[in-house]
Amino acid sequence: MRGLHTPNLPEKIVDAIAKVVGDPPVALHEPHFSCKESDYLEECLTSTFVSSVGSYVDRFEAELANYTGAKYAIALVNGTSALHISLKLADVGLGDEVLIPALTFIATANAVSYCGAIPILIDADPKTLGVDPAALREYLNENSVIRDKHCINKLTGNHIKAIIPMHTFGHPVKMDELISVASDYHLTIIEDAAESLGSYYCGKHTGTFGLLGTLSFNGNKTITTGGGGAILTNNKNLAKRAKHLTTTAKLPHRWEYIHDEVGYNYRMPNINAALGCAQLEQVDKFIKNKRNLYSKYQSAFANLNGVSIFSEPEDCMSNYWLQTLILTNEDKILRDEILSLTNNKGYMTRPVWSLLHKLEPYKNCQHMELSVAESLSSRLINLPSNV
Amino acid sequence: MRGLHTPNLPEKIVDAIAKVVGDPPVALHEPHFSCKESDYLEECLTSTFVSSVGSYVDRFEAELANYTGAKYAIALVNGTSALHISLKLADVGLGDEVLIPALTFIATANAVSYCGAIPILIDADPKTLGVDPAALREYLNENSVIRDKHCINKLTGNHIKAIIPMHTFGHPVKMDELISVASDYHLTIIEDAAESLGSYYCGKHTGTFGLLGTLSFNGNKTITTGGGGAILTNNKNLAKRAKHLTTTAKLPHRWEYIHDEVGYNYRMPNINAALGCAQLEQVDKFIKNKRNLYSKYQSAFANLNGVSIFSEPEDCMSNYWLQTLILTNEDKILRDEILSLTNNKGYMTRPVWSLLHKLEPYKNCQHMELSVAESLSSRLINLPSNV
Predict the structure, then answer these.
(1) Angle between helix B9-21 and helix B283-300 axes, rounded to 10 deg
(2) Chain A residue nearest residue B37, CA to CA
(3) How distant, in Å, are the alpha carbons of A82, A245, A301, A310, B261 from that of A298?
(4) Beta strand B229-233 with B212-216: parallel, antiparallel or unpaired?
(5) In this complex, is the C-beta atom of B106 within 8 Å of any C-beta atom belonging to chain A?
(6) Of these four, A129, B137, B254, B328, which has the most CB atoms within 10 Å of its CB?
(7) From CA B60, how far away is CA B54, in angstroms rounded?
(8) Beta pairing class for B307-309 and B323-327
(9) Which CATH number fits domain B9-31+283-383: 3.30.540.10, 3.40.440.10, 3.40.190.10, 3.90.1150.10?
């Protein structure tokens, strides 16, 4: 039986979207540029500093630190590289294990793989869409043992070293509870805040709770540098090591080329940082618009049974990067029909990512019961979030 | 005894440089921008396509293929990522061994490390500054054995899978001889052409001889995209795999997120490709100016005993990316004094990279007798090459 709650639900969803965002085509998310982007790019060309050294990189890093409240920000080529280096800085290496959400973009897992480490997948919390700290505690209680302040996986004997909470669509994970679990099990927290620039948990910016946090400035994010990312940390040594590791581990010298470890070429070019500086000046406006859009969707869908618009978790201020529609269990069979109809009508929508254990490279990962993540993945649809 | 050939050699070198490049300060290399760079960046902003999808990426790839004569070019975030993915495409993995020059930038070795593979270091040819195919053949003859068309390292028992010739400062390696050795020992050739855009060996562009070739468009290269690189190949399947692996291995689908292997976030953003398109339009002019600069240095240093200006190898046309001064054995003790004086006077010069086996992460690498590389590294100085 189709559309139990509401007859013609897909068509009514299209109507509600149209009411909010107007005539099609409407993208899922598009970047917006003011005149400053042009000016800064032009300045960049004039200075000839377009590459890995330049004043916009320094400025972007300083402004990111200021905006997020992190002591240090290190600008990189993308969010994936930021996760990769953060894991290295947390000493995650061959055969280590890292707890990550089952419900996340594949980059979270890939960064773990780059280190030769192995992901363990955690279920989601329906109130945040992120990892569920209570379920995690229960899982670790049953499946791990603490030896010499190391969390050891009973099944594999490997060291479970870190946890990467990801703030889904800009909605913060329950960080207080997560910090408590991480503390009890001696896990390093690395926050994947790729989607949550401008999102706060209890008044504190996401990405600043863990030892390290990461951001993304891909073209589909709240602000963009073309491609880009950043590491956030309050630890001076880690910040210094992050810069060193991402600039080929070259030691400072007037002319000699001495590198003291295997490094990476991950620094953000100055021309991308120039774009970032102009974008960051507008971030408050972007987020205000995203939050207004949420209110409009909330109103437009208020009387539509069978669906709800996801709201920011308690004690949080979300950036509402992507607006999220949730179908009821009864109506979830309509998911693909809704995706098809909305996209055919020119309103770009998408489902959530395939759960990691459904993907070929991670199908054999150890994981807890993933019933909430499974349920969410069958019921979530991101709506046009362009503002 | 100092300056055997010429009294006051460091001072005379400064005079000769000044004669060629004029008043200081003069950089080692600076990018040059015309009005087109501005126009294309502006177009990029107007289109809102600044990120990993966009028409400038497609155009840059097509124009790179056209310029180099490769069938396919894949634009990436930098030259290091291009080497990393090329090695993956050549099936280089954990415990494999890869022959690389001892005299190269550390990125060549790092890319091998990223794959879990191990570099073996090769000596240099004084006529090309790149790997010496004759010395390589002799080394492989003594130190390897062929089993089932696999080159096996007698010492380690590991599979020596590939060789990465690097075209130093834009001067091509003796590719005919190298191809013959690679063929006899069943080695895959991946060319590190990071420095040699616009350099030809026997009329064929560097980077198009091996199964795969790589380019760099860092700010210090002949043309720049801020940060960037590319893979060149004539193999359609490899080109397709390169795009797939560098875009998170996502399968094409209207909305689903299905990734079939551990992929990377290595694609060049459109805004960087926009810069690249404008730069590529000027590459012939840049190289003409670089070659003219070589002639001027050649004249200015002609009467200075104790030094020579390095000239393109036989049958080659080099881009002369960086101009290279070579000291005699007698005068090499003056190297640091020359570096110091020239830099103090505002003429940016630099020595060649530290040889890889002198660097902490590669000090235990297996290597042949490296007497030529050792000698060259003590005698080479790059001169201001800004044009």
Answers:
(1) 140
(2) A45
(3) 34, 45, 5, 9, 38
(4) antiparallel
(5) yes
(6) A129
(7) 10
(8) antiparallel
(9) 3.90.1150.10
What is the domain partition of chain A in residue ranges? Answer: 9-32+283-383, 35-280
| CA gap B325, B321 in Å, rounded | 13
Neighbours of B184 (CB within 10 A): 13
Is residue A92 within 8 A of residue A115, CB to CB? The reply is yes
d(CA B90, CA B88): 5
- Fold entry, domain A9-32+283-383: Aspartate Aminotransferase, domain 1 (3.90.1150)
What is the mean predicted confidence (pLDDT) over A31-45?
Answer: 93
Residue linked to tokens 């019933």: A371
Q: Match 């021309």 to its residue by tokens.
A: A271
A209 vs A173: CA distance, rounded Å: 11
| Matching residue, tokens 């979270």 | A108
Token readout for A233 is 């940390």
Q: How far apart are the first and last CA of chain B?
A: 36
Measured in Å, how far apart are chain A's first and last C-alpha atoms? 36
Distance CA B91, CA B78 (A): 20
| pLDDT of res. A127 | 98
A353-372 residues touching B, CB cutoff 8 A: 353-354, 359-361
Closest-CA distance, B114 to chain A, in angstroms, reads 8
Task: State the complex-level ipTM.
Answer: 0.95
pLDDT (tens digit, 9 = 90+) per residue, B60-97? Answer: 999 999 999 999 999 999 999 999 999 999 999 999 99
> How far is the CA of B238 from the CAs of B86, B211, B241, in angstroms?
9, 9, 5
A30 contacts in chain B (CB < 8 Å): 48
- Assess whether pLDDT exceeds 70 at residue A263: yes
Torsions phi, psi for A84 (to 5 deg): -60, -50
Pick the CATH number of A35-280 from 3.30.300.20, 3.40.640.10, 3.40.50.1970, 3.30.70.660: 3.40.640.10
What are φ and ψ of residue A346, in 5° steps?
A: 95, 10
Model confidence, pTM? 0.96
Chain A 22-61, residues with CB within 8 Å of chain B CB atoms: 30-33, 37-38, 41-42, 45, 48-53
Strand order in the sheet with B316-317: B204-205, B200-201, B316-317
Separation CA A352–CA A337 (nearest Å): 15
Contacts with A81 from chain B: Cβ below 8 Å: 265
Q: Between B107, B263, B272, which is nearest A110 by CB?
A: B263
What is the overall mean pLDDT for chain A? 96
pLDDT of residue B51 exceeding 90, the answer is no
The reply to whether B9-31+283-383 and B35-280 are identical in fold is: no
Percentage of residues in chain A having pLDDT higher than 90? 94
Residue B269 to residue A264, Cβ atoms within 8 A: no
Report the residue of chain A nearest B115, measured CA to CA.
A114
What residues in A contact B50, CB-CB < 8 Å? 31, 219, 224, 226, 275
